[in-house]
Design goal:
alpha/beta, 7-stranded parallel beta sheet, 47% helix, binds NADP nicotinamide-adenine-dinucleotide phosphate
Length: 259
C-alpha cells in the first residue's frame, strides 16, 4: 500500500533503537525525510546511517536529550516544520511506588507527559496551517492495564492521553491527527532489562523469566519492533486521516477486554 506520505518530514524522538527506531525505519521506507534521536551520539549516528542505507531516505541524526529544552531545540533546528511527530522517550525504571522521591515523580511526569505536550505545542500550528499533521504518542499497554512497579509510567502516560484527547478534537478539522500506541511486550532492550530485573529479584534464570512472560501473552510470543513501526507509519498515512484521539493497543491479546 502506498501510504501517501512520501516527501513528508518526520521527527521521531528517542529512536536510535527499539520501538522508536522501528517507527523511523517504517516512515523512511514510506518515503519520509526522518530525524532520528537518542542521547548516545555514536548509536544515533549509526542508526541514521543504517536506516538511510536500507531505505534511500534522507535521515538526520540528532544526538540530544529530548527531555530538555536544549534537546527539543536541537530536534526542531534539524526539522523546523515537521509534518509528522512521533513522541517517545525512555520509561521510568521499575520501582515500588513507596520508594519514589518527589523529584523522581516530577521527572517521570516530565519525561512521559510534559515533553510530548511541549513538542506538540511547538509543531502543531504550522501543521494546522498546512492542513496536514500526524502526531503519534508512544505510551504503553499499562495505561489500560496497570502493572505494579510501573505506576509512574502508567500515571504520567494516562495524564498525557487525557490531555491530548481534547487537543486532538480541536485540530481534527485541519487534517491533524493525534493518536496513541500502547505497546504490550515487544522484543527490545527495555523489555529484556525488565525481564532480567524480574529474574534477579526471583532468583531464576533469565530464559525462565522470559518464557514465563511469553506464556502470559495469548499470541505466545513477543511483539517485533518492525510490526510496531509499520502500524505507526499507517497511523501517519493519508489513509488514516479519519482516525484521531484513539488508543491502539498492540499486545498480542494480552489485555483481555472486548472494547
Ligand atoms: N518494549 C516494550 O515492550 C514496551 C512496552 C510498553 C511500553 N514501552 C515504552 O515504549 C518506549 C520505548 O521503549 P523501547 O522498548 O523501544 O526502549 P529501548 O529499546 O530502551 O530504546 C529507547 C530509545 O530511546 C532513546 N532515549 C532514551 N531516553 C532518551 C532521552 N531522554 N532523549 C532522547 N532519546 C532517549 C534511547 O537512546 P539513548 O539511551 O542513547 O538516549 C533509545 O534509542 C518507552 O517509553 C517504553 O517504556 C515499551
Amino acid at each position: 500500500m502506498d501510504l501517501g506520505i512520501a516527501g513528508r518530514k518526520a521527527i521521531v524522538c528517542a529512536s536510535s533503537k527499539g520501538l522508536g527506531r522501528a517507527c523511523a525505519a517504517s516512515l523512511a521506507e514510506a518515503g519520509c525525510e526522518v530525524v532520528v534521536n537518542g542521547r548516545n551520539r555514536d548509536a544515533v549516528e549509526a542508526a541514521a546511517a543504517e536506516i538511510a542505507k536500507a531505505t534511500g531516505a534522507k535521515v538526520t541524526a540528532v544526538a540530544a536529550d529530548v527531555s530538555t529544552p536544549e534537546g527539543q531545540s536541537a530536534l526542531l533546528a534539524a526539522c523546523p516544520q515537521p509534518d509528522i511527530l512521533i513522541n517517545n522517550n525512555a520509561g521510568p525504571p521499575f520501582r515500588d511506588f513507596r520508594e519514589l522521591s518527589r523529584q523522581q515523580i516530577i521527572d517521570g511526569v516530565i519525561a512521559n507527559m510534559a515533553v510530548a505536550i511541549e513538542l506538540t505545542q511547538k509543531v502543531i500550528d504550522p501543521m494546522i496551517a498546512r492542513k496536514f499533521g500526524r502526531i503519534v504518542n508512544i505510551t504503553s499497554g499499562t495505561v489500560k492495564a496497570p502493572l505494579f512497579g510501573l505506576d509512574l509510567s502508567s500515571g504520567a502516560r494516562a495524564g498525557l492521553t487525557a490531555f491530548m484527547a481534547g487537543v486532538a478534537r480541536s485540530v481534527a478539522g485541519a487534517n491533524v491527527t493525534i493518536n496513541f500506541m500502547q505497546p504490550g511486550a515487544f522484543a527490545t532492550d527495555r523489555l529484556y532489562s525488565n525481564v532480567e530485573m524480574n529474574a534477579k529479584k526471583r532468583g531464576i534464570p533469565f530464559e525462565q523469566a522470559k518464557t514465563e512472560r511469553i506464556a502470559t501473552i495469548p499470541a505466545k510470543r513477543l511483539g517485533m519492533p518492525d510490526e510496531f513501526g509499520a502500524t505507526c507509519a499507517f497511523l501517519c498515512s493519508t489513509h488514516a486521516a479519519y482516525i484521531t484521539g484513539q488508543n491502539l493497543l498492540i499486545d498480542g491479546g494480552a489485555v483481555p477486554g472486548a472494547f
